[in-house]
Amino acid sequence: MATHVFIATTQGLVAVNNLYTLPGAVANSTVTAKGFSQPLPIANNYHNFVKLGSGIIEEDFGEGKFRIDLSDEITQGLSWQLGFYLAHAARHCGILGNGQPQPGDHIICATGAINTAQRRVVEVDHVPVKIEWAREQLTLWQSMCSVLFLLPQANAEEITEVEGVTFQLVEAPEEVALFLPDHAAIRPLHKSTLLPAESPEQVPAPSSRSISYWIAALVACAGIAIISGVAWQWPGSGNPAQAQSDTQHQGVVSSSADHSTPVPNASPDPALTLALETQHGETCGAAKMSKAPVSEQDNVFNEVAVNKNLCRIAVLPSEAVTALLFIGLGEQRVVLRQLPMNKPFIPLPQGKGTKRYYLAALADELNEKTLNQLKGYLFEQASPTTLTRGEVEQKLVQLMPRFSLYQHTLSGE
Amino acid sequence: MSPVNHKQAEAIFVAKRQYDVLSASHENSEEQAAVVFNDLMQLASGRLPGSHRNILHKINQSLDLRRQYMNLVKQFSYEYSSAQAAASSLDTLEGRETDKFALSFSRDPVAHSQIYVVLTIHFPNSQHCTDGVLVNVDGQQGIQQIRFGPLIDNKTQLLFEQSDSALQALIDPQASIVIMN
C-alpha cells in the first residue's frame, strides 16, 4: 500500500508522481511536471526549500539534490511546501506512491507554507477554493482509499467538510510524518531531536501490518514561555484491551522494571500537573467542538479511543509548568523534543492499534547542554522499546530537579 | 497657413510616412528585413527576447554576419572557450573547464533521456547572479544562444532532452563557447 501525496492548488489537485535524488554533479534541486525537462517557476524556491541553511529538507532528510516530478504545473506561491515536505517524509520511509492511487492505498492531500526559520506551518490563501476544486476527486477516492487532508492550523476555520475525508491541522512540519499511514513508515527522520517546534512522530509497532498505522504527535504553539517534554511509546501490536488494563507496560520488554527500578527524588511534584482534554466535533475545523477532560490516576491518564469525531487531545499544564519534554520510544529510535507551551495538543493518528506516550512537565526550562545529555543518553539506547518508565525517570532525575511524568494510551477504532 | 506652419506640417507628414513604411515593412516582411549592426548588438547583449531566433537564423545563414557577430560577442564576453582538441561523445558527456567557468553534464537517473547542464562561474558579476548567464555557442549547426538562470552558489543549471539542439551544441567539443558578461 503506497501513500500518494497531492498538493491542493487553486487549479485542482497536483500529484507528486516521482521524487528522487539527483547525481552529485547536479547543482540545484528542481521541480518538473509530467516528466518534461522544463523546470517549473517554483524550482528555485524549491531548491532553497531543500538547501541546508535556507531550507529544511536537507536538514531533516539528509543532504542531496532532489527532483520532484508533478502531474501538473505549479507556477507560483508557497503552499506547495507542506505537501513537498510530506512527500520527502514519505519517500524517506519508502512508501511514496506515484500519484496514481490503487484500491487500498493512502492518499494525503496538503496545502500549507512553511516558515523554515521558525519551522512552523503558516497560513495559506484560498483554502476553500482548493478544497472545492479537490472535492470531486476526493469523493471518488474515498470509496477505495483512505483520504487525509492536511492544512495549517491557522486555516482551521476555512475547512469545508468533504464526505469520507479526514481533515487534520498541523503547526509544525515534523507533524506530517505522524500522519503517514504505514507504521513501518514512521521511522526516524535524518535529524531527529530537539526541534524547536512541536509534535513528535511516532514509532511503529510490531510485525503485523494489519495493526498498522499509528501515528502520534504532540503539538504546541509558541507562547509566553518555553519548552516542553513528552514521552511517547508505541506499543503497536499490543492487544488494545490489554493495553487499557496495563498501559504502562505495553511495548516495554520488562514491564515490572518500570516500577521496580528505584527512582530517587522522582516523586511527582504536586505543583507540576498536566491535564488532558479531548475535543470532539463532526467538523474539526469548526468552533463547535465539545470538550471533555481525560481522567487520571497516579499520573496515568485513562485510555482514549480515537475515532472520527475525536479532533484532538489538548494538553493543559498547570501554572508551575514552564516546560514540556517529549520523549518518544520507538523500535528504531527515541524521539526527544521540547515543545512550546502555548497550545500543546496531540494530533491524532489514523488506523487501529494502541499507542502509549509520556508527557513530562518540568518546573524549569532546560538548557541546551542538558537536552543534549538527555538526547545522547536516549540515542545510545540500543533497543529504545526496552527503555522503561523507571529508567526514563531515573535519567530525568539526574538532569533536572523537578518534574512530573505522565503516561497515556490511545486506542484506534 | 503660414510658411512656418506649412513646414511643420510637411515634416510631420514625412515623418509619419516614413514611420508607416518602416513599420509596415517590419510587420509584413520581417523575414526579409536586413540585419543591422544594432540587431547584432542587441542580440549579443541578450536584449532581443522576442525575435532573437529570427535574427540568429539570419546570422547563421550569412558567413559574414556570423563572423561579425562572433567578433562582437567576444568583445563583451566574460570568458571565451575555443573549440576543444579532445574528442567527446554523448556517452561520456565530458564537460569543459577554463579558469573562469566550468560546464558539466549529468544524466537524470530516472529520465535517462534528460541531461542536466551545470554551469559554474568562478568569478561571477552581479548580472550573473540576478539576471542569469547568457551563453553563445558557435558550433557545427551554427550559433546558438542559451540563457541560464541566475546563479545560486556560483552555479546554474538547465535540463535538456538529449535531442535538444542546444544541448548538442554545448556538448560538441568543436564548438566555441562564449560566456557573456
Key traits:
heterodimer, A: alpha/beta, seven-stranded mixed sheet, six-stranded mixed sheet, 30% strand, globular, B: 181 residues, four-stranded antiparallel sheet, 6 helices, elongated
Short description:
Chain A has helices spanning 43-50, 57-61, 80-92, 127-141, 240-245, 257-260, 368-379, 389-399, and strands at 3-9, 12-21, 30-33, 66-70, 106-110, 113-115, 120-122, 146-152, 165-170, 227-236, 274-280, 290-294, 296-297, 300-301, 304-306, 310-317, 323-329, 334-339, 345-347, 353-362, 403-412. With 413 residues, chain A is α/β, with parallel strands linked by helices. The two termini of chain A are 20 Å apart.
Write up what this structure looks like:
The complex is a heterodimer of chains A (413) and B (181). Chain A is an alpha/beta fold and 413 residues long. Helices cover 18% and strands 30% of the residues of chain A. In chain A, strand 17 and strand 18 form a beta hairpin. Chain A has a seven-stranded mixed beta sheet. A six-stranded mixed beta sheet of chain A has the order 15-21-20-10-17-18. In chain A, strands 12-11-16-19 form a four-stranded antiparallel beta sheet, with no helix packed on it. Chain A contains eight helices and 21 strands. Chain B is an alpha+beta fold and 181 residues long. In chain B, the strands form two sheets. In chain B, strands 1-8-5-6 form a four-stranded antiparallel beta sheet, with helices on both faces. Chain B has a four-stranded antiparallel beta sheet with strand order 2-3-4-7, with helices on one face. In chain B, a hairpin with a 3-residue loop joins strand 2 (96-97) and strand 3. In chain B, helix 3 (52-61) crosses helix 4 (63-75). Chain B starts with a helix and ends with a strand. The mean pLDDT of chain B is 83.
